[in-house]
């Protein structure tokens, strides 16, 4: 039977303090419990050793601590680890640890499934079931930080919201999670090391700028030609490039922070001269850099990685126009943990 008790991690610190005062204890007890729940990421009341047994029993009678579990773990030859994460209601999302020589990055999910419909993405084939709660996003980071320390001997250095789901469609919870991740009372990570990657929701990009967020913004662009982008990312029909462009100009005017465009080049889809020209034109609007991402086919369908020649053409033309371009080799391909592959065969 499903528990009717409230998840204690849905309470703010102030609400926890009030709870203790209302129950005849000191407000300070709320700070202690908050510290166990977030900074120490404890998932059982029994282990809160500076709290009396009686108080722990009272907490157990009133609350549960919902938390995630690493349900499955696959390790790639390149050190990448893909985790199947079981949520408290049994649903599964995926999170990935991506190690390089200089950093370890957590790629985290923000929704179960996705409501958008990018044709090249395995997650798009899953119906969106629900948004993740802030603690479920936070817990993914904690779990991957542990793996980073265990398998790579150093703490997690970066976070990207590029797992399952569109983070800006779960904006409030993503922001609450990032608040906790960056707070000294949470994980104390720098916002500069966090990147939220969106498929491009103009209204929400403007909202982020208004909210003066401190993290980085990446946009999965993939084409700067309207018809091509709509054919591979059909929601583009509702959020056309002109609106996206205006929202990015707004973002830059307010934050003065450059944008990263994520860009995959597919054979016969966006590998022509006109595609490169459109991208170069689009790059003139706001300071930006391009991540050219290697693609991993999710089946034998229409999306196949473009030839090396086509990719070299992109690189040389972008560089000729002084646009910074990084080629991102995909990691964890052998375990379907690479970009666009989450939910593939899992
Ligand atoms: S690429 Fe991102 S936004 Fe598009 S369907 Fe996949 S998870 Fe959703």
UniProtKB/TrEMBL annotation:
Subcellular location(s) per record: Cytoplasm
GO biological process, one term: methylation
Enzyme Commission numbers on file: 2.1.1.192
Cofactor: [4Fe-4S] cluster
HAMAP family: RNA_methyltr_RlmN (MF_01849)
GO MF assignments: methyltransferase activity
PROSITE patterns: RADICAL_SAM
Function according to Swiss-Prot or TrEMBL: Specifically methylates position 2 of adenine 2503 in 23S rRNA and position 2 of adenine 37 in tRNAs.
Enzyme class name: transferase
Catalysed reaction, written as an equation: adenosine(2503) in 23S rRNA + 2 reduced [2Fe-2S]-[ferredoxin] + 2 S-adenosyl-L-methionine = 2-methyladenosine(2503) in 23S rRNA + 5'-deoxyadenosine + L-methionine + 2 oxidized [2Fe-2S]-[ferredoxin] + S-adenosyl-L-homocysteine; adenosine(37) in tRNA + 2 reduced [2Fe-2S]-[ferredoxin] + 2 S-adenosyl-L-methionine = 2-methyladenosine(37) in tRNA + 5'-deoxyadenosine + L-methionine + 2 oxidized [2Fe-2S]-[ferredoxin] + S-adenosyl-L-homocysteine
Cofactor-binding details, from the entry: Binds 1 [4Fe-4S] cluster. The cluster is coordinated with 3 cysteines and an exchangeable S-adenosyl-L-methionine.
The UniProt record lists the keyword Metal-binding: yes
Active site per UniProt: 94, 339
Residues that coordinate or bind [4Fe-4S] cluster: 114, 118, 121
Domain of life (superkingdom): Bacteria
Sequence similarity: Belongs to the radical SAM superfamily. RlmN family.
Record's keyword terms, sorted: 4Fe-4S, Cytoplasm, Disulfide bond, Iron, Iron-sulfur, Metal-binding, Methyltransferase, rRNA processing, S-adenosyl-L-methionine, Transferase, tRNA processing
Name this polypeptide is given: Probable dual-specificity RNA methyltransferase RlmN
Name of a matching Pfam family: RlmN_N
Domain Radical SAM core: 100-334
Coiled-coil portions: none
């Amino acid at each position: 039977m499903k528990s009717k008790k409230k998840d204690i991690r849905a309470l703010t610190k102030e609400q926890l303090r009030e709870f203790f005062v209302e129950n005849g204890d000191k407000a300070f007890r709320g700070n202690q419990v908050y510290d166990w729940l977030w900074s120490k990421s404890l998932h059982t009341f029994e282990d809160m050793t500076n709290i009396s047994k009686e108080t722990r029993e009272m907490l157990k009678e009133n609350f549960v601590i919902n938390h995630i579990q690493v349900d499955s773990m696959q390790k790639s030859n390149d050190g990448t680890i893909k985790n199947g994460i079981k949520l408290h209601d049994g649903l599964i999302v995926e999170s990935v640890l991506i190690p390089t020589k200089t950093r370890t990055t957590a790629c985290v999910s923000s929704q179960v499934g996705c409501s958008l419909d990018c044709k090249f993405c395995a997650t798009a084939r899953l119906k969106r079931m629900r948004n993740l709660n802030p603690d479920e996003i936070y817990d993914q980071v904690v779990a991957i930080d542990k793996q980073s320390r265990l398998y790579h001997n150093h703490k997690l250095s970066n976070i990207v919201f590029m797992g399952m789901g569109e983070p800006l469609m779960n904006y409030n919870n993503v922001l609450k999670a990032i608040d906790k991740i960056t707070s000294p009372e949470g994980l104390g990570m720098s916002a500069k090391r966090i990147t939220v990657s969106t498929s491009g929701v103009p209204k929400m990009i403007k909202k982020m700028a208004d909210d003066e967020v401190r993290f980085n913004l990446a946009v999965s662009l993939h084409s700067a030609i309207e018809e091509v982008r709509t054919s591979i990312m059909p929601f583009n029909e509702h959020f056309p490039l002109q609106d996206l462009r205006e929202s990015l100009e707004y973002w830059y005017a307010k934050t003065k922070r450059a944008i990263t465009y994520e860009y995959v080049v597919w054979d016969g889809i966006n590998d022509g001269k006109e595609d490169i020209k459109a991208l170069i034109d689009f790059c003139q609007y706001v300071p930006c850099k391009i991540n050219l991402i290697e693609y991993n086919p999710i089946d034998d369908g229409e999306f196949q990685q473009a030839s090396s020649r086509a990719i070299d053409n992109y690189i040389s033309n972008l560089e000729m126009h002084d646009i910074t371009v990084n080629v991102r080799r995909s990691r964890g391909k052998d375990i379907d943990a690479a970009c666009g592959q989450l939910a593939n065969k899992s």
